[in-house]
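Bit of a strange request maybe. I'm writing a small parser for structure token strings and I need a real example to test against, not something I typed by hand. Could someone generate the tokens for this chain?
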Amino acid sequence: MGVPDADGQGPPDGLPGLPPEWGRVVVPDDASALADEARQVRRELRRDPRHTHRPVRVRLGLPVLVLLVSMLVTLAGLAAVTWPRPNRSGAPTVLPRATTAAPSAVGPLPALDLVGADDTPVPLRSLLPAMIILVDACACADEVGTAAATAPAGVTVVTVTEGRSAGPATATGVRPLGDPAGGLRSYLHLAARPGTAAALLVDRQGTLVRLVPELGPAADYRDDLARLAG
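Reply from user aminoacidic:
Good idea to test on real output. This should exercise your parser:
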């Protein structure tokens, strides 16, 4: 290979001129001859902090920890809401028996004036104690007749039809009345169910002691009627 000539011009083989301070530069034909110089250059690069390449570590520890804690808190909240809780008293849990009976109404019977067969007002409280049967959804003559036969002396059996017409007496000993404004059903929040008659058992103090949403056999209310007469 060529080297610079004495007058600083490039060699005839076309190599560019090199700085004079480099001195004589000899390029060997075999690259393995430069192995020692290459190792020395690599050592110098390793010692130079400007050429130190350290792997960049992505710090994912904190975000992953926050996400994990959030998931655990959410799962714990869901478990607390949906997980069945044991009975603290230690007693077995008793499920209510399925029944069609409505809960007893609380409070006194409203002071309503109903309408009699001759369109005269009849204060409802003047008939107490009483079994008041709502027959606007069903005449239910058999059930009304059974109630009239079961009622003890001193207990009035009244049938009430919504509207101004009291309707005919469906059984002996039964007093038919009309409820022009539908005040009883409105007070009880009791919707009419076609084919059924509801009954109210009211004591002599005017307290509604039981509401029978569907009048049935006398055995369902016989004891309550006896207590009304007491």
